[in-house]
Amino acid sequence: MRRTRQVTILSVAAAAGVSKSTVSRVMNGTPTVDPEIVTRVRDVATRLGYRPSGTAQNLSRGRTGIVGVLVPDLANPLFAAILKGISAEAEKDGYRTLVADANEQPGEELRHLHELARQSDGLILCGPRMSTPDLAGLSELDEPIVVVNRKPARSLFPSVTVDSQEAVDALCRHLDALGHTRLCYLAGPAEAAAESDRWSALQSSIRSRTKLLRIPAGAMLDDGHAAADEALATGATCLIGFNDLVALGALARLQELGFAVPDRVSVAGFDDIVYARYTSPGLTTIAMPQTEFGQEAWRLLSPFLQGRKGRRTRTLQARLVIRPSTGPAPMRG
């Protein structure tokens, strides 16, 4: 079988009677090339079926065509959904994403980011756990950065955040109507901006007759499972997880112990990951705008990649989703 000869930039240069560098300038849209030569080169390229390498074009322009994305935990479906939103929008603009997973290890985030910065044109940080000084220090990287689900101090970088207060108010009203007066919050990682936001929202939303307790947990299924016994010991009639994974871990432990949910204990979470809908019972949760987080992050970053100024902030809204995991508080006999 005869092999088809590959058309290269040298093939176009020879057929058009110009140098390789001239073909490169034409294909990259350099405005200083004579219009007659531009027409001749493009006609030859079309006739020969030449298609310039996107990677080569980007490199010649000093770009990689890649955007780096840092996530704290890829095992959490929330961040997978955010990444999906980023990737879909980036692809429309001809960019690809390179992802680094910090695996809930804040100390690893800076190392990952410096590696990403060497291979990308911009960075998107999803819920970074690093300290405020470390986050501020990223300005030395000298490339566009957008932060998701955390507002940098002094608005140093463009950011996409979420306002959960109204949804948390609705959750507390829902639990109050069901007769719950003793709640236990299974707290997330201290480094997570969402942790302080969610705890503050709960504190400001509970009714005067309600006791809100707090025990340390984490961000993963195992963390919720491990914290459930201590949470039960508080006498709370409803457990609220830092996120859905923590809530689902606690739910699994309650079922192991023979505690019917919601008959004996109610459970709620944050995020509305895909598992929340399909677990049994379905999980009541504060739904985050997951894919929209990613889409909006790209829309903030894109103008800066093109050398233009863009918006600095975007605030999205969370909402309450009520499912069977919350029910009337058990009667105290």
From TrEMBL:
GO terms for MF: DNA-binding transcription factor activity; transcription cis-regulatory region binding
PROSITE patterns in the cross-refs: HTH_LACI_2 (PS50932)
Residue ranges of domain HTH lacI-type in the record: 7-61
Name of the featured protein: LacI family transcriptional regulator
Superkingdom of the organism of origin: Bacteria
Source lineage: Bacteria, Bacillati, Actinomycetota, Actinomycetes, Propionibacteriales
SUPFAM superfamilies linked to this entry: lambda repressor-like DNA-binding domains (SSF47413), Periplasmic binding protein-like I (SSF53822)
Pfam families: LacI, Peripla_BP_3
